[in-house]
Amino acid sequence: MEEKLFTIGQAAEYLGVSLNTLRRWDENGKLTAIKKDGGTHRYYREKDLEIFASDLMKFASEWIEDGVEFPGTFYCATSSIFNARLIKMEYALMQKSGFEKLYSLIILITGEIGDNSFAHNLGKWPDTAGIFFGYDLEKRIIVLADRGLGILETLRQVRPQLPSHVAAVKAAFTEFISGRAPEKRGNGLKLVREVVTDQPIDLFYTSGDAEVRMKGPDKAFRVMRGQRLVRGCLAKIEF
Fold it and tell me: HTH merR-type domain location, by residue (predicted)?
């Protein structure tokens, strides 16, 4: 059976990027095109595009660290776009068997994390406004990220005495802090912690050099100091 090939225009539409971005990725080896019979036209295997677009953590990490381009289908410039994509993901989850009791909680914590990024960076984005929001329901993974102020700088506006990223992230997940912009859905990251603790959902969350890892049967909430300094926030939800 002959494999399906996409033209460069079709591949650009599939990934949500420009033709020039695809040409640049081909030239630097990030996403290599096929040129048939020694010609100059670029073609892409459907499977290569699927694999490329599925590496969510890599795209999100490279974007928040170095501003590296990623498929535009994962970019939510505004909270309205984010919520529209969240509704689309909710509908997709509702169609999958085995998620009848869990899908609403997955949507809830995804919404809390995404809304948290928009609410606490409103009018204060250091450079690129908006968030990365990607998911692969077959692999049961959701990734969100932003290039915002980060938890420590945000909380220091009302708690200037906070000494570190670890202390700030711990406070964000465990305390009600007056003076912050209101979370739209519930209690922000505090609600996320409560849901993940009680449900078969794993969470990785990092901001600055602070990391939260809630995984497996031991869901004890801990904030540890990581090995790298992350700007903004990065979250991975697995279920």
Answer: 5-53
Q: Are residues 32 and 80 in the same domain?
A: no
Residue 220 is part of which domain span? 56-238
Region 85-109: mean pLDDT is 92
Decide: 112 and 105 in contact? Cβ < 8 Å: no
> Which residues lie closer than 8 Å to 43 by C-beta, 6 or more apart?
5, 6, 7, 8, 33, 34, 35, 36
Same structural domain, 64 and 83: yes
Q: Report CA-CA distances (Å) from 99 to 104, 107, 112.
A: 9, 11, 19
For the chain, state the CA radius of gyration.
Answer: 19
Residues 72, 42 share a domain: no
> Is pLDDT above 80 for 178?
no
Residue 2 has pLDDT above 50, yes or no: yes
Q: What percent of the chain has pLDDT over 70?
A: 95
Tokens of 206: 């990092």
More confident residue, 237 or 138: 237
Evaluate whether 16 touches 71 at the Cβ level (below 8 Å).
yes
